[in-house]
Amino acid sequence: MRTLLMAAAGPPTILLTAALVVAVCFWLLVAVGVAGAGDFDTDVDLRAWRLDGVPVAVALSLLTVFAWSLSVGAEVMLMVFAPAGAAIGLLRLVVPVGALFVAWAATCVTVRPLHRLARDGPGPSASREAAPHPWERAA
After folding, report:
1. What average pLDDT does this structure show over 117-139?
2. Which residues contact 106 (CB under 8 A, 6 or more apart)?
3. How far are the Cα atoms of 32, 50, 57, 61, 85 from residue 25, in angstroms, in the given order?
């Protein structure tokens, strides 16, 4: 457990840990009803990153969770199995960057099936028009 905490709170993974804390706090605000999952959709266009089709908060939260998990996992593996040295220290600096690229690919794959739940998917049926969209804040 100590190794896991050291990996999550150590540099440079602490940046991803802070982003994860922000994402969790945002989703707690959504759960309470203070914010909505689609509140940032007009601010950011994720088509260039191939993450469109879902609310921005969903895509970036998934990216954060994947990147944090991969980075912490790789850091733990390095702490446990790799000997201490300058090369390992440099590798620990590169791990979060590599985790971001792998997380981006995983997020692209994960967002694709979620696209069907978004409003710009196939036309809604008559029963779906009356029900509120699951990603919209209740009024």
Report:
1. 52
2. 66
3. 11, 25, 12, 11, 37
Integer Cα distance of 100 and 65 in angstroms: 10
Spatial contact of 107 and 23, defined as CB atoms under 8 Å apart = no
The domain ranges of the chain are: 2-117
Q: Is 9 exposed, middle or buried (0-12, 13-18, 19+ CB in 10 A)?
A: exposed
Q: If you search the block for the tokens 């908060």, which residue do you land on?
A: 57
| Cβ-contact 72, 7 below 8 angstroms | yes
pTM for the model = 0.77
Identify the weakest region by mean pLDDT among 42-46, 47-51, 63-67.
42-46
CA 9, 13, 19, 20 torsion-angle sign: negative
